[in-house]
Design a protein that fits this description.
Blueprint lengths: L4 E6 L4 E7 L1 E6 L2 E6 L5 E14 L2 E15 L2 E6 L2 E2 L6 H16 L6 H23 L1
Parallel strand pairs: 1-7
Antiparallel strand pairs: 1-2, 3-4, 3-5, 5-6, 6-7, 6-8
Helix pairs in contact: 1-2
């Protein structure tokens, strides 16, 4: 049996997973990274993407909307802005959110850089949710 470590996957509203895992892949802002047992300590910001981990020999996937991950001797804590399993994603709602963000971005005044960044982040979250739900 592979070495395991403690994983906590949390959002501001609820805990989604807490238990022993064999490995985890996370969508870091500087690229996807993996963690195995006895990994060196560090903290990373997360971008919208997929968190994948192996627990009891089964791979589990969650769509995350960004956040932070901390790797320590105690394990890994993922503090996600939002997270959901593929079967929890409302495809129609995600498609509407992506379409609305695209439309607003197309009509945006080019001088509104801060609003552009928020709309692009909204698009990334919606596109990620669709990708995760459709790949399940």
């Amino acid at each position: 049996m592979a070495d395991t470590f403690q994983l906590k996957l949390l959002t501001p509203y609820k805990g989604l997973f807490e238990g022993q895992v064999e490995a985890i892949l996370l969508p870091g802002v500087q690229g996807e990274f993996g963690v195995l047992s006895r990994h060196t300590k560090f903290t990373s910001a997360l971008q919208p993407g997929v968190v994948r981990f192996v627990a009891d020999g089964q791979t589990q996937r969650f769509s995350v909307g960004g956040g932070f991950a901390e790797v320590s001797e105690a394990g890994v804590v993922v503090l996600a802005d939002s997270a959901e399993r593929p079967d929890q994603i409302d495809l129609e709602r995600a498609e509407r959110a992506l379409d609305e963000a695209r439309r607003e971005l197309a009509e945006l005044d080019p001088t509104k850089a801060a609003l552009r960044a928020r709309l692009e982040a909204r698009m990334a979250r919606a596109a990620n949710r669709l990708k995760v739900a459709r790949s399940a």
